[in-house]
Amino acid sequence: MSTYSDASGAIAPLPKARGATGFGGVLPALAFVTIFFIAPVAVLLLRSVLEPVPGFGNYAQLIGSATYLKIFANTFIVSGLVTVISLLIGFPVAWALAIMPGRLTSVIFAILLLSMWTNLLARTYAWMVLLQRTGLINKMLIGMGLIDKPLALVNNLTGVTIGMTYIMLPFIILPLYGVIKKIDPSTLQAAALCGANRWQCLTRVLLPLAMPGMAAGALMVFVMSLGYFVTPSLLGGTANMMLAELIAQFVQSLVNWGMGGAAALVLLVVTLLLYAVQLRFVGNQNPGGR
Questions:
Q1: How many whole angstroms separate alpha carbon 163 and alpha carbon 234?
Q2: N or C: fewer beta carbons within 10 Å in the chain?
């Protein structure tokens, strides 16, 4: 038995540790996750192979239909574009936030958070107004002489990409900022003293050190884009449907839970594969080089 000496010098046994040992302490959390997350997903996936008849007919129909394959292509193309554009915009913003004075950084963070807290439906409708043929963006482009006639920026994948990029930017800026902020500025100074120019400092020092944050943010944005529903349905239209809209149509309009579950399983498998790839290549890297 472990002992300790109290203030009077007497030897007394250590008090027993409170709380359950082993899995007892996590059982409530495991039960919560199982009941509210794992069980509903399992039921939905079971219905994908049991309805309307047992077998893999729903998956064969998804893979064998050119219409469904086009929807899959739309989903992955838009998600990939949104991820790449968000990275290209989010990295300079995160770097600027990391080197800005603290007061200015707080103001910009407040703007980012306010954009995230604003109702998603309201933001999407705002983009519908801005992107329409008579909207502010087309009027500005015509007024500047860049175009002669209004561009078609809504009811297509262009509008979906613009709207989703705006919504996803905070989700890539925040993890990038956290990683870049931890990078020791003396590392870049040492590279410059060794003869590296600005481009070499960026590509050989800053980008490799920031790679864990870039990978985490890109994975988050891509996975969230795969399952987005509101923005694609309002800015894309029925001719440019994405997978989340297809699942909603299967479940709500057609009451076809089997096909809806099969499409949902595809999203789940893609998400798990992407997460496994991230863990394999960048999961063990130390953010910020520390």
A1: 10
A2: N
